[in-house]
């Protein structure tokens, strides 16, 4: 039976930030669905501008070029080029405006073309997870210095979670290290799969095991997304928090090949006031 998607999304200012530098987007077209989470960096308004440019440019480029992509390799190439285009535009904006010269953004995206594959790509430390068969699997790799140390076998994965370089990114939109674009991973979908796209405002304070249990306990995609945002704040997140929850079903909702997307009023909702505390910038140090 053909598949369909149910999608929920949520982005929260959080308790310690003056502005939301995260941007999230769900674009539903007749021939494709695009989901994006972008976590901006650069301070003041710059991070917000970078993340919004990412969620504007990538869907635009995918919409323009995907109709001619007739193979898996072609689809991967179109996704990579769309991300590279966003990177070039963000770098150009920083070159032309002194106030934006250090801005950048992470990105994690999912693309569905009404078939049995979901394509995933990321830059930075925004992540994609798959929840299937009672387990949670991180499908993306963080582009942080701490993760690089793990891959070099200098530190362990557990040590990386608390390492001082865990939020120091070496590849992101707005950096010269993007090169020819991100790795693109196709996932063969199964009925009942759930995917989580999120910023580190969620994964920083909430461990994978707790994410798994929460997602399992909240079957509605939008309620799950709203709840995950609040869970991050309850667990002490000091960042903006953003996530998209994607549920794979067999021909449910609007029928086979459809996408049911509902966004509650929690989107862009400020978090409840917390005990006053000095606002501290995210510790991203980005390569030149």
Write the layout of secondary structure elements.
Blueprint: E1 3-12, E2 22-28, E3 33-41, H1 46-65, H2 72-96, E4 104-105, E5 107-112, E6 117-123, E7 127-132, E8 135-138, H3 145-151, H4 157-161, E9 184-188, E10 194-198, H5 200-203, H6 208-217, H7 221-234, E11 241-250, E12 259-261
Parallel strand pairs: 1-12
Antiparallel strand pairs: 1-11, 2-3, 3-4, 3-5, 5-6, 6-9, 7-8, 7-10, 10-11
Helix pairs in contact: 1-2
Structural class: alpha+beta
Strand coverage percent = 25-35%
Give the helices and strands as they follow along the chain.
Answer: EEEHHEEEEEHHEEHHHEE
**How many separate structural domains?**
1
Query: What is the number of helical segments per DSSP (H or I, 4+ residues)?
Result: 7
